[in-house]
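Case 280 in the screening queue. Each case pairs one protein sequence with one candidate compound; here the compound is 6-O-phosphono-beta-D-tagatofuranose. For every case the pipeline is the same: read the inputs, emit a complex structure as tokens, and attach any notable structural observations.

Predict complex for case 280.
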Amino acid sequence: MTVSTFVQESRRGELATLIIDNALGRAEIALFGAHVLSFTPHHDNRQRLWLSPHADLSGKKPIRGGVPLCWPWFSNDHGREQGELPSHGFLRSQIWSLTDTEQKDETTTVTLTPDHTRSDGFDYSADVTLTVTVGRELEVALTTTNTGKEAFTFNAALHTYFNVDNIAETRLEGLTGKYKDKVSNWAEVETPSPYTFSRETDRIHLDKAEQTTLCMNAHQTLIRHYGHDSIVVWNPWGSAASISDMDAFGYKHMLCVETAITQGAVLQPLDSRTLKQIVA
Ligand code: TA6
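Case 280 output:
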């Protein structure tokens, strides 16, 4: 069904999706998780996002690939026993509603809102909206507003899976300083230069870089970051074999570069914070 000239309702597996296709680019968003599944600008027709061929599209499990939304905690940092609450929070596993579409110049923006923002592990009043703008670039912005009477602390991430031609020949530019290394018991380690990949990588960079670049042999993907306090870099490498919705070699073609709040952002009543990633 047509929502507007540039926005169509569609389906992927058992999921309802929106296809945005305009003069500059094309993207698909699942309403389950307000999850951006793909983005291809027309000028080079190159898919920027990686979606696992084994992603569960039944709506029963978060989608492996695209742009998962983490909120109001990151990973298992929810203050309870691991496994008691869902990894990365509860926004990515609920059905969102399309509340607005806007056409400006040649870009299209859709606004989505989740069904609920209060759940086990987060007992505060908050409004959350996601806007996705599709043009020559993809812009994804997650805004949290405190609508209650007391301050709360939250974490969040745009956990984007990027397509890479070959991870062993990919370089990440733009990060310096220290990162916290999940695969070495959270040791603080200096960012390598050049930043290349040859093993499992799971890092929280405390660098608030505004731009990072994925450099591949034939092309580059530019990633701009806003409203974050850290950048997370993840590739499971050999542990991909134990991830049910990824095949053993899936790690070769993806890298997560995540615009994230991992250090706890405090939001006072009526205040808002927007976490934004722009992909070019
Ligand atoms: O962002 C990195 C990370 O937190 C990793 O530690 C890894 O577990 C990954 O996210 C995927 O998490 P998920 O819950 O989607 O399987």
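Case 280 observations:
- The chain has a mean pLDDT of 97.
- Residues 2-279 form a domain with the Beta-galactosidase; Chain A, domain 5 fold (CATH 2.70.98.10).
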